[in-house]
Every structure is written in C-alpha cells, then in structure tokens.
Amino acid sequence: MHRSLVLLLVLAFFYCCKPEKKETIKQPEIVANQSNPVATETVPFVWEGANIYFLLTDRFNNGNTTNDVNFERTNETGELRGFMGGDLEGITQKIEEGYFSDLGINAIWFTPVVEQIHGDTDESTGNTYGYHGYWAKDWTALDPNFGTKKDLEKLVKTAHKNGIRVLMDVVLNHTGPVTDKDPVWPEEWVRTKPTCEFTTYENTTACTLVDNLPDIYTESDENVELPDALLAKWKTEGRISTELDELQLFFDRTGYPRAPRFYIIKWLTDYVNDLGIDGFRVDTVKHVNENAWSELYKEASAAFESWKKKHPNNVLDDNSFYMVGEVYNYNISNGRLFDLGDKKVDYFNHGFESLINFELKQDADMDYESIFKKYNKLLHTDLKGKSVLNYLTSHDDGNPYDKDRKKPIRAANVLLLTPGASQVYYGDESSRDLTIEGAVGDATLRSFMNWKDQDSLPGTKNILAHWQKLGKFRKNHPAIGAGKHKRLSKKPYVFSRTYINDDFKDKVVVGLDLPIGKKSLSVKGFFGDGTKLHDTYSDTYMEVKDGKAIFESGFDIALLELAQ
Q: Engineered SS bond to 494: which of 39, 261, 317, 489, CB 3.0-4.6 Å?
C-alpha cells in the first residue's frame, strides 16, 4: 500500500512538471478555434479598424419565401437581373446562427432596402428589376421583397445584441429609372439630362449618371411640392396624415427650405431615429454637392443621439454616428482631396469619417511589408484622424482582385491585415463564383451566396476557416486595423501592431509565410522576456525567451496576442 502511494505521487509530480507540447500536424485541415481567450466585451469598437461585411440583401439568404414576388415583378430578365429572394429575415437568421460572429464581423452593410421601382428596364445589359436596391421609388417605405420595418427593427436589435453595428446603404443622388409602372418625378425635383461626362465638377454633379436615371436637384434650395403620385400612394396606404405631420415638424425644427434633398434627408434619418442605425454607407458621393453630405451627417447625428437618449439600455458605446462614402475611384494615395477635373474636394470635411478605397486591389500582389508600410504611413499622416474602407471585390467593380478565386488565402491576409477598415464582400470568405456564364456587366459579381459550397466542399471549408481565424483576431484587436505598424523581422516576416487610446492598449504580433513546424519569431523590444503569448491561429501557448517566441504549429501563419 505504501509503495503504491509513493509511485502515484512520483507519477503525479512528473506529469505536473512536464512542459506542455502541442502536437504538430504536417498537413492539417483548418478548423476555426472554438475557444476565445480574449475578453471581447472589454475590447472597444473602433470604426477605423472595423471588419465590415457587405452583402446584397436580395442575394444573401432567403429567410421568408412568401415575400419573393411583389408588384407583379414577373417579367423575364437578363441573367442575375431579377429578384432572387434574399431578405432582411435571412440576414437576421445568419446573425442568430453566429455566422457573422464566427467571421469576426463587427458591422454589417447591406444594400438599400427602401421601396424600389415596380417595373423593369433594360440599360443595354439585359432586362433588370431593382433587386440591388439603388432604384428608389419611395424612401419612406421598405420594399416588401426585402421585408417590413418590423423585420429591419429585429435585424438591428439582433445585430446589437451580438455586438454588431448596422450600416444602411443610402442614395440621395437619384430616383429609380422611369418605366411603364414608374412615372418620372416632377421636373422641379429631378433633371433627366444631360448625362454626366465626369471631366469637371459641374458635369459630374449636375447631370444624370446614365440615361434614364433621373437626377435629384440636390444643389437646389427652392421649395418644391410633394409629387402627386407619392401623395396618392401614401393616401392609399393610410399614412398620408402621419407623413405630412412629420414633415411639418421636421421643417419647423430645422428651418430648412422644402427643397428636394431635405425631404430625402428627413426620410433617411428617420431610420436612425426610429431604429438606432449606427451609420450610413453613402452611394454616389461625388455626384452630389458636398454641402448636402454635411447636412445629411448633421441630421443623422442628431437622430442617433436622440435614439440613444430614448433607449439608454440599448446603447452599445459612445461612438458617434458613422458615415463612409463611395467616391468612385477614390484611392488612399489621393489623401484628403479628390480631383474632379477643375476642382478638388475634401469629402472628409463634409461628414465622412472614411471613404471606400479603390486602391488596395492594385496593391494586393505587392509584398506584404510594402502594402502595410504604405497604408500605415498614409493613415497616420495625410489621413490622420480619418480612415479608409479597404476592399478587394465589390458589387460594381468589374476588375476585382483575384476574380477567378485562385488566391483566397492571400486575399484574406491582405484584406484583413492591411491597416484601415476592411470590407468583406459576401462570398469572399467562401470563394463565391464571380464569373457567371451569361451574366452581363456587374451582374456576374452578384450571384446568390454559395451556402452549399460551405457545407459540402472541403476546400471551401478550409478557406472559410482561414477567414474566420483572421477575422476574429482582427475583431478582438483594434491594433490590426487602427494601430501603428512596425516590421520586427524580414525573414521570417514578422510585424507588430500597437493601438493606444486613453487607458486601453492593444499589442499584437503577426508572422506570415512562416516555416511549417518549429517557428522562431523575433519579438525583441516589443514583448519582454517572460511574457506569455498565445497564437490564436494554432491555439498554442508559449513564453518569450531571449527576445523570441518559439513554438511549433502545422501552419505558415501566426497571430500572437498576450495570453489571458
């Protein structure tokens, strides 16, 4: 009995003192970490480093098949140019399932959901309905193909419950096209010619983007009456008195003239005031006089603060209302000024915290350090205090990065690790096909989300898991997008990011193109000896010794954070 007890004590001592060693697998199947060592609820949300998921509402997930056809939209269309059933309920379902959280997404941007034109039109690319959301008929109503206001309210509440912000896509520049079901708005509201030439300020703003896309007189301060067709619609729907009373209150409060842009600003900011929308992605920014964006931001900010006061228990943080703009062909190298030919405009000085950056797709095949160093410098000098929203693929960019989806891992590394905010276009994370046979123009970029591939193809599962790991690391560490970059080692390539804001400090180290198996990452001068670190990619723990983090994993990437 005594001898057995001694043996047990010796074995126990040996086991406790034996150093932990992680098993290395030569050709691993990537499985996203289920554990999360970071207390994410203590990590501040920073728009400058946000991980934003952009989706076409109609093409993401069909949560309610009963709303798939409305307004007799049954005419035959070109390939991928009709409604396909995606809706707000479908987005909410995926939030509830944890799809966005698993991807490290902390903001969702979806295409406009206001009521679209009822008819169809052909812009020489095939017969088309307003499935994309950019052809407004009534800004005060949601299109039943996308859902109801109750559906939108539930989406916002569900997103906020999961720590995810909501960006509404908004259009101030134009109405939808004229069809046999959709008459042109009154001539005091819109111009129908000339078509934009894009060589001067005037022929970029005071013109129609394309033929048959009536352009709102956003520069006008002249009072206009509401269109008869809109009044008749409201009357039929039983809400004319409410709409008119609310407009009277808005114009009495603000003192604005009843000019076209102010009506639309009122209608758009109602969604903020009523639902707590966190921000706007603004369409066709350079085609509208910049003062209109200052006015939109002012009213949206007031609406956001009003909502916060009315719903103190639902406020996520003290971030202000956020606006990111689409100034088509804006590049981060432009700095703060965009050249319209005969005039340069600083849109950052007119309500925008960020602009969509069209340049990353051109930079994406440079070596990592050249990309990261360039963006770090620009964001902390020319654009200090502002940011950009980086992307590699989008809904209307016909020349995306890696259109054939041959480099999905590199795409993830570039997009999710480059300084600035990141825009994950739906299906980037699962290599959704962007080359659809028979689709003309931008329609090929807008196929339905490839959910079946995620469930059935091992290669797609591995790609998704990689995006998930990088996305979670980015979400948990504002330093990745909003911090300062510094290379620690050229070979193997290792860099650090540091973010400091008041009492919050975030420090991380990332290694790329590392050897499979044993790794030695130089962290000297950044993490001191004895510091305990955690590689979130392989879920491996280590301690810094002689200025190095040494560990083994079956991957060529390391995402190091302080161990909790």
A: 489
